[in-house]
Write a structure and sequence with these properties.
By secondary structure, the chain is of the alpha/beta class. The protein has ten helices and twelve strands. The chain has one domain: Ribonucleoside hydrolase-like (Inosine-uridine Nucleoside N-ribohydrolase, Chain A). The radius of gyration is 18 Å and the shape is globular. The structure holds alpha-D-ribofuranose and calcium ion. Calcium ion (CA) binds near residues 10, 16, 40, 122 and 237. This is Inosine/uridine-preferring nucleoside hydrolase domain-containing protein.
Length: about 300
């Protein structure tokens, strides 16, 4: 079987962690590298959390740390993943900051031209910096799969903006302006696909990850309810990861998307042309639906391995 070579760009993050677990357990996926970015927590914490996950999942891919702030200034920090970014879990990994994520994305894509999928699970600063440093990169990336944006949904970080894009709108605009095939997994389908603690009963009792998932999900549900008013664990990044595992299970639509970088009230908004008339210049495959029960069953079956 030809494996799908991927780079996971991430700010672990409870849902990032579940995404990485799924990909680690999927035979058809070849993780070339994990690149970290600040967002859900500091770069120190997100990188340390990535090291914890690499050890937990016996991954042999390298971890390269990246952006500590957005293209235009400091990041605001996330709240729903706890202070360390992995609420509910304590570990002793410290985070080795190599600060070379952009350079390594360039190196890996140039080593495997037209073979690499970049999975963006945090602010897209690392990928944007890579593209700024090597403008030929977009023509050599196979596809970019992004968890982010809100097309038919209010934002989760402002009235209209989703967290990953809100943290670095300029980076997202740079990425969306490339000709590289892009897939967007936006807020609306994530909200329709919550994970509940009761779902974890589907996991076999001898599953190594079951107690860890339970420790992660329970406090995450409480924080999401407090800060985002939602019910259940919205495992945003796991849906984006699942697109790499089972793309046929998603309903999608081709849309043209622009990222607002100037609006006083709309900065970070993913603006889509939803008109049913006029000239169309779609630049993104947008996921519009996913069968929740199938996804959760598939996810937990994989994590039970
Ligand atoms: O808006 C949800 C996104 O922001 C997810 O990637 C979550 O991990 C946070 O990074
Ligand atoms: Ca994330």
């Amino acid at each position: 079987m030809t494996k799908q070579k991927i780079i996971i760009d991430t700010d672990p993050g409870v849902d990032d962690a579940i995404a990485i677990m799924l990909l680690a357990k999927t035979e058809s996926i070849d993780i070339q590298a994990i690149t970290t970015v600040a967002g859900n927590s500091s770069i120190q914490n997100t990188t340390a959390n990535a090291e914890y996950l690499k050890d937990l999942l016996s991954l042999n891919c390298p971890i390269y740390s990246g952006a500590t702030e957005s293209l235009t200034g400091p990041f605001i920090e996330g709240q729903v993943h706890g202070v360390t970014g992995l609420t509910g879990i304590t570990h002793s990994f410290q985070g080795n900051l190599t600060n070379n994520a952009a350079e390594k994305i360039i190196e890996i894509v140039n080593t495997f031209p037209n073979e690499i999928t970049v999975l963006c699970l945090g602010p897209q600063t690392n990928l944007a910096q890579a593209i700024q440093k090597d403008p030929t990169l977009p023509s050599k990336i196979k596809q970019i799969v992004i968890m982010g944006g809100a097309i038919q949904s209010p934002g989760n970080k402002s009235w209209v903006a989703e967290f990953n894009i809100f943290l670095d709108p300029e980076a997202a605009a740079n990425v969306f302006n490339t000709p590289t095939p892009k897939v967007l997994v936006p807020l609306e389908i994530c909200y329709k696909t919550p994970l509940f603690v009761t779902d974890l009963k589907q996991m076999t009792d001898d599953s190594k990850l079951k107690p860890i998932l339970t420790s992660l999900v329970m406090p995450y549900i409480k924080l999401l309810s407090q800060f985002e008013g939602v019910d259940g664990a919205i495992i945003y990044d796991a849906l984006a990861a699942y697109y790499l595992v089972n793309p046929a299970s998603f309903t999608t639509k081709e849309l043209e998307i622009k990222i607002e970088t100037k609006g006083e009230f709309t900065r970070g908004m993913s603006v889509a042309d939803l008109r049913t008339w006029g000239e169309k210049n779609p630049n993104t495959t947008v996921a519009t639906a996913l069968n929740r029960d199938l996804f959760i069953q598939d996810l937990l079956s994989s994590l039970s391995k």
